Amino acid sequence: MILLKINRCALSDLIEKNRVMWYNIGNLNSKGNFMFTYTKKIPNDLSCDVLVVGGGPAGLCAAIAAARGGADTLLIESNGFCGGMATAGLVAPFMTCYDSGGNRRLIRGLFEEIVDRMVAVGDAIDPSTVPTSSAFTSYITVGHIHVTPFRAEGLKRLSDEMLGEAGVRILYHTSFVDAEVVGDRIDRVIVLCRDGLYAVTAGAVIDCTGNGDAAVAAGVPFTLGNGEGRIQPATMFFRIGNVDSARIDADIEANRNNFYRKDGVNYRSLHWWVSKAREAGDWTLDRVSIGIFRGVDEDEWSVNTSRIMGVDATDTESLTKGEIVGRQQVKEIFDFLKKYVPGCEDARLLESGSTLGIRETRHIHGVKTLTVDDLLECKVPEDSVMLAANSVDVHGRFGPKSNEYIALPEGRCYGIPYGCMVTPGLSNLLVAGRCVSAESEAAGAIRVMPPCMGMGEAAGTAAAMGFADDLRSLDTDLLRDTLRKNRVELDME
Ligand SMILES: Cc1cc2nc3c(=O)[nH]c(=O)nc-3n(C[C@H](O)[C@H](O)[C@H](O)COP(=O)(O)OP(=O)(O)OC[C@H]3O[C@@H](n4cnc5c(N)ncnc54)[C@H](O)[C@@H]3O)c2cc1C
Fold first, then answer.
1. What pLDDT digit, counting tens, does each position of 210-227 carry?
2. 456 Cα to the center of ligand 1, angstroms
3. 398 FRET partner, CA 20 to 30 A, in 38, 82, 229, 332?
């Protein structure tokens, strides 16, 4: 009853301020809230050939590729900058772009161009020079060969530059709200800018929201997490500075034999200090070790250790609770580092992510679905738009302490097919990045940033080629030839 009063109050306010034309109150949604419908006149003066929704690693590359391909491209992004998890979430480093033996650089194209430009100005370290099992890989051995440490601030600036050079129109502080579908096409997209709602007409839409917001609003079916109630846990990343890195290295070297090893994977660094802290009552978290990655600057590290179970980032209440718990965990971990870990005594907490790190939400159902067997059997389908060798990395499946890491056989890779980015029901929608059509475990491999950037580049290239036609029947041989010309690796050696 109280809820109804609040809603009615808000509703009359809405009618007063926004000239709502018509409404009705009826039905309850799944959370028991009253639903109502209203219509409103909004401007429809935004149009483009290709609309990219979300400017994370996938969306950034999708927008640049679409514009370079000749399409009039509009990118909308909720934040005031691009990069998604790489900037807002402080996730680092870029995971490996090499084959599983660390010999062949597989993910090139736009990803490599971005990395090279960051390296040139000192905002990243060339991955070919970054050793495995080092401070840069949190001392992990397998699957972390030649990662790319980078500065988030540099990526923000470079994204603006590259989008500008390509001629992409950018609207920051603009969120996707809804999609209107006519027949098999998304006819209009409703977006919320700072000055209100607008309708956008676009030849093609590329959903790079990580959550599949645009696809789902357009009626595309999806699976949340593994479809059986399990979603990979969230993590609040944070960065620390003023660390005596040589002393952390020395402590790790002194404890090399204490590392937990499973299937040849060497991880769980600093667990010897976590146990001590737990015994002393200074550690209450369900974690047994510390993920800590050295950054570009000698005294700065990214800490990937907090773990928040059961967060559904497509549910605002759940996400909000996760953010709050995440920051509490950051405090406990930082206090632990200062008190126990040699080299961290004078460390400073520089910042936590401005958004919680989200590993998994929705996997949209595409024409094809990438399976974990496809990856582990190293399949390269004919319509592959990129090659990758990132390991299957599933956190928390058997409770908060569990981590599963399945690496590919040495020197191998798999292909990510175009079919995972198109949906059976819509002719002008592509999906790229974390939410592409993949089983939960397969997504646990391709969700890392280099493959997301590769998928984004492929989607942008495809959209530029086919925004006026049916993207489901795009000539994938032609797409692959175009990608090859742009230095995307598609051929097995
Ligand atoms: C804890 C954690 C650790 C990780 N570790 C690594 C690692 O070490 N190395 C690595 O390479 N990868 C790592 N990853 C994976 C990687 O960061 C993400 O999976 C990757 O960033 C996904 O890219 P994306 O572009 O699909 O989505 P995101 O990075 O999530 O970007 C989506 C973008 O869309 C925007 N957006 C969302 N909804 C809307 C909307 N409705 N309207 C407008 N804009 C919207 C967001 O603001 C965001 O900018 C990690 C992830 C997490 C969470």
1. 999 999 999 999 999 999
2. 12
3. 332
